[in-house]
Amino acid sequence: MLSFLAPLILGTALTLEGATDALELVTTTAASTDYQVSWSNVTATALTTPGTTKGNVASATTTTILAAPAGSNFRHVRGIKVRNVSTTTAQGVTIQVDVSATNRLVYAASLAPGESMSMTEDGEWTLYDSLGRPRGTADIPGFTGRVYKWSKVATAIDTIGYHYLLNKDTGFPGAWSVGTPGVNGVSTACDVVGTAGTGGALSTGSPLLADPASGGLYLTRFGLNGVVANTYFLADIIWYNTGLVVTTTTNQAIVSTAWGARDVNGSTNGEGVGIALYALTALGNVAAVANSTVSYTNSAGTAGRTATFSAAVGFQAPATPVIGTWMPFLLQAGDTGVRSIQGITLGTTYTSGTMMLIAYREIALDGVSAANFPSGSLVSRAQLNPGVRIYNDTCFAVGVLGGIATTAPSFTAGIIELMER
Description:
Number of strands: 27
Helix content: under 10%
Oligomer: single chain
């Protein structure tokens, strides 16, 4: 018989032992309060018939709601329910065990009119509002938000495995107009249109991103319908420059302007910020280039760091990069971001064409699995709540990560969905 009783005994969280333990309800006001206790007794040889104790208290007092069992017996509490039935007065409630006139606190709460609380057999307490819902789960008002639309008519990608940025392409928003900010570059802010080269939405070919009325913006969806299967990335262009000399193989000094507060932490330190070389027009180097480097200060404030290429597809400049080729650098080992840029050394001549450096923060990725199919997030996705933080002034950019074909990666039905909260 005892082996049968053991699972029942082990499954209870509150037990009165012998004639010394009683369960009490302490109330602090005259609010009318109902209670109910479910219990069962266990002797040394048997589980007796379960029982319940019910009642009402309407004063500030201490009430025994479950008497002590007989000596050498146990009384297992299976559940407790307490409800403030007053329509006007709050009630302070304490559940305690009186052990030979010494009180041991079990649980305490304040119940507004109509509110209740309950304990399950495993000792878990839940507070309920006057409508019977777990407290804290009242209806949440909808969030404001906005959707930015994209469509782009791209040009061909370079060799398979290399990357491509679409902001220079026609479509919606229109092609960028980077202007000539020079080698020291310009920090961007796409809450304004601006003019060519000033770093606004016109300069970067990004949507005009109005600041939220309050709180912040969060990405809840990024997706598109691709003409060819590819992996697409969403990034924030934080800074860019022009005026680099493609035939100079020694260091070209740069004093980059300060980033906006748009790193992964919303600061100017540059945590999560990367650097890419970009083919503003087609470049003329006849072979792949893997020895270009960038001198930078990392996000911890350490100067003299070096970003490099690597002699592998997707990690170097391809031979004769086509316009739009995106060539990201690898940061020095241990670094997690870039705070500023001090120079670039091409190492090998790129012969002809124009290029620029871009500092960016990668935000999201999504994939198109087959030609003329929507990306995954447009078909099925888990709701991101609140999603990746999009900081004020963000300049969105869309690119292809490691193109699997050289076909122009045009797309339609592109969306960037933001939540404001």
